[in-house]
Specification:
ten-stranded mixed sheet, five-stranded mixed sheet, alpha+beta
């Protein structure tokens, strides 16, 4: 009898031990929400997705750009959402993060009670570290964890929050990013982006979200390689000279500003295609009295 009971117990233990290997209480074990930025009323390059700022448009006090933070959460299982982001470039200063908990405008996780918007049904918090140039916001349910009821479907029809980036006139031509924190950068235990999901068995799983950073391209008169405020055949010649030097292992013939202006297709390579683009635009300018800017011309071709 004892042997029979022992055998049965061993069999049950084996089944219980093996169960996690053959079944999961979480059908979306590889799923994670997506956090992303979207600039408001900004010039976005459709080919690269870069947000383009021309240095001659930046006033002395800097250019204020408003940027929204969105979350795409399709599982409807989230009980916690915590994006955190940073500008490593101190000449792009983050400020004025918006607190929906003190307002009645709808956002991604507004709750409607009796036809009235309530932004305090879920805990909404914001934070801003001016010295580290970081920001964060979070939305969470209370002590009893349960999935959010989003205000809209999909959830990114409305933003999670928005903030302002002040872009300094002192910035040189180049590429800069506002990025989500996915690992500590400023100190070892720095909080990073995360998201909490309720699983089918009622337990909670903290996930590392998918993030899409924002690239800001500071530019001037594109194609104006020599900096004389004109785009002409001289600029095309300078591009070809740079291309030839690089192809033969020589040193660059251009300064940083010149190299940036020469990369007319923004593939971060200076070659004959860039020279051709400059000549095409120069030919166009010579044929009209109402020429549009370089970028606009190629966007409309």
């Amino acid at each position: 009898m004892k042997r029979t009971i022992a055998t049965m117990a061993a069999a049950i233990l084996a089944v219980l031990t093996a169960a996690p290997l053959t079944a999961s209480a979480d059908p979306a074990k590889d799923y994670a929400p997506t956090y992303y930025f979207k600039p408001i009323d900004a010039n976005v390059d459709p080919a690269t997705g870069d947000t383009v700022v021309y240095n001659y448009d930046i006033p002395d006090e800097g250019l204020d750009m408003q940027i929204s933070v969105y979350v795409l959460e399709t599982s409807k299982q989230a009980w916690w959402l915590g994006p955190k982001w940073k500008s490593s470039e101190q000449l792009i200063k983050l400020k004025d993060i918006y607190d929906y908990s003190t307002n009645t405008e709808p956002f991604a996780y507004s709750f409607v009670k009796n036809g009235v918007i309530d932004n305090n049904e879920y805990g909404f918090e914001i934070s801003h570290d001016e010295e580290l140039n970081t920001m964060a916001c979070s939305v969470k349910t209370g002590l009893v964890r349960k999935p959010f009821v989003p205000y809209c479907d999909p959830t990114d029809q409305y933003e999670l929050t928005h903030f302002t980036a002040n872009i300094s006139k002192e910035l040189t031509w180049g590429y800069y990013t506002i990025h989500f924190l996915t690992e500590p950068e400023d100190y070892p235990d720095q909080r990073v982006c995360d998201a909490g999901l309720i699983l089918d068995d009622g337990s909670s799983s903290i996930r590392t979200p998918i993030v899409k950073d924002m690239t800001i391209r500071i530019s001037g008169i594109e194609g104006d390689v020599n900096g004389d405020d004109f785009v002409d055949s001289t600029d095309a010649s300078d591009v070809l000279a740079e291309y030839a030097a690089l192809q033969t292992g020589g040193e660059s013939t251009l300064d940083d500003r010149g190299r940036f202006a020469a990369d007319t297709d923004h593939d971060r390579i200076i070659d004959s295609t860039d020279a051709s683009n400059i000549l095409v635009y120069y030919s166009y300018v010579m044929s009209t009295d109402e020429a549009v800017p370089f970028v606009e011309y190629f966007e409309n071709k």
